[in-house]
Amino acid sequence: MQLCLSPPLRWFITATSRHYVDRLFDPDPQKVLQGVIDMKNAVIGNNKQKANLIVLGAVPRLLYLLQQSSSSAELRAECAVVLGSLAMGTENNIKSLVDCHIIPALLQGLLCLDLVFIEACLRCLRTVFVSSVTPVQLLYTDHTVIPHLMSLLSRSQRTQEYVTQIFSHCCKTPEHQTVLFNHGAIQNIAPLLTSLSYKVRMQALKCFSVLAYENTQVSMTLVNVLVDGELLCQVLVQMMQRDKPIEMQLTAAKCLTYMCRAGAIGTDDNCIVLKTLPCLVRMCSKDRLLEERVEGAETLAYLIEPDVELQRIASVTDHLVAMLADYFKYPSSVSAITDIKRVRRARARARTHSWDRLIYSLLDHDLKHAHELRQAAFKLYASLGSNDEDVRKKITETENMMDRIVSGLSESSIKVRLAAVRCLHSLSRSVQQLRTSFHDHAVWKPLMKLLQNAPDEVLIMASSTLCNLLLEFSPSKEPILESGVIELLCSLTQSDSPALRVNGIWALMNMAFQADQKVKVEIMRALGTEQLFRLFSDPDTNVLMKTLGLLRNLLSTRPHIDQIMSSHGKQIMQAVTLILEGEHSIEVKEQTLCILANIADGNTAKELIMTNDDMLQKVKYYMGHSNVKLQLAATFCISNLVWNEENGSQERQDKLREMGFVDILHKLTQASDSNLSDRAKTAMQQYLA
């Protein structure tokens, strides 16, 4: 049943709202003050009333009264309180307040000497900045604001709580971290960790957490900070004790995690191994609140992501791998009962809301939590299984795990899809899993579907996973090839994203390894020599290296070498010349010389080198290079050219002798590097046979 306001009732609310606004314009200051106080009482918990007052123009008048020096201190404070209450409504309310320039007005109000007014302004600013729709950059526009806020930390417990909360919510970028750091955030906030007020301690802790995130400078400073004579790390460890509030334990663990990831604390430090990691694992248990389980798992995933030993320790702590399986069981029958109780309470409370809207709201709530739990579990599984084979096996053997990952790839939530493919990518590093679980569950099918239409961040992870599925020992390679993946991968090589270009080429490189001639020809056709040339000129070295790897795999086995070089030889030789003449790394030039060595192994393709004196001089130059890797690759090329079991070997040997290659080979037989001297001796033997 839809509950509607009857026209007379709607008129009454609007008229009442108009009356509140009209009273703000009364010439009697005392009546204006009483009007503001009555308005404050009227809007508490009443979003409809708040919206009406905003529409009727209450905000500009309240801001005017707040900024007038002729207004009494009490009136100005009450105006700030009402504005703060309006800000506690909907996102649209916040947008309206910001559009009315509430932030500059409140920041100006902080210059007043009256503490009650300052606290009211800060409380309102806190409410506005906590909202996700408020542009946080507004706090940094005026360079005098941050130092003034720092100075207010000494005024009262309320100013400490509000200022640190504002900082926590407005510190979104490395630039913000730097501004706060340079204005003494650490020195000013550190003493607050011992405040008698729990709220102040928590906001100070949260502030340090956001300051330390991925910031080496801040983290290195924090690790040396003394709080009441104790190092900050020791204080944070105490805050993680089981008798402390869960919120405090979790935030302290996050702070230490961020300091560790920023390099300020070693991954083998006791405060990480024996305190932070176990604390975060505790947060994942099913007796914790849903939000705590999500935050605990995501923070733990971030902590252990780069460290093999932490991954191993976490995997055997409190049956974590099995514990995470419960993340996929929400909503459960227990949560359904809780929801029914919540519906009854909400229905009793909200007489002006329809039953249907309440049901949809609660369903959305459940769906949001279900998504967050699955996302967190996938992230943590991805970190746990990124290196250790035994841990990967344990994950895939967890109840219905592969089915859950496959389902996750087609979730409605983009964040869940990304986390699921990240987990799949982690597991795809296992040869055993590629041959068993991945094959049994045909994971390539949903992965290919995901690649058809997804944001770049999902495409990057999905294409990276595909690279592993295209390795020669993967049973998924053949069905993926048959699905027409080559065109898709070639299109990725044209992406603006360097990561997608790398993955596209990488997948083609894996596909070309020991492939049939038909596959290689199709890759060259779909990619085209023009795009190949563009990739050889790519500014990203990773793209260039993978392109060279692709070409090297294409130019393997003599029939394939000869066939490809007969069709694209001129363009390939031009690309090789450009790279050998260019300013490239040793690794890039080594790969290029290896390609040249492969070409030299062809029956007919080698003539493209022998008839190119400029190319031979380049090979000669690299045989005498100071880098052994380049010498070895160049010598390999000459060894293939002079091999005496092939047609025309005598003529090639004679030409190379005339060009001075034999003298160089003779010198290289005395090289200190055994691989180089052996290769030179092998080439010399072709002349003696």
Automatic annotation (TrEMBL):
Swiss-Prot/TrEMBL ARM repeat ranges: 57-93
Organism superkingdom: Eukaryota
Predominantly, its location class is: cytoplasm
- Stored Pfam families: Arm
Matches recorded under Gene3D superfamilies: Leucine-rich Repeat Variant (1.25.10.10)
Which InterPro entries does this UniProt record tie to the protein?
ARM-like, ARM-type_fold, Armadillo, ARMC8/Vid28
Q: Which GO terms describe its cellular component?
A: cytoplasm; GID complex; nucleus
How is this protein named in the record? Armadillo repeat-containing protein 8
Q: Specify the species.
A: Electrophorus electricus
**What gene does this protein come from?**
ARMC8
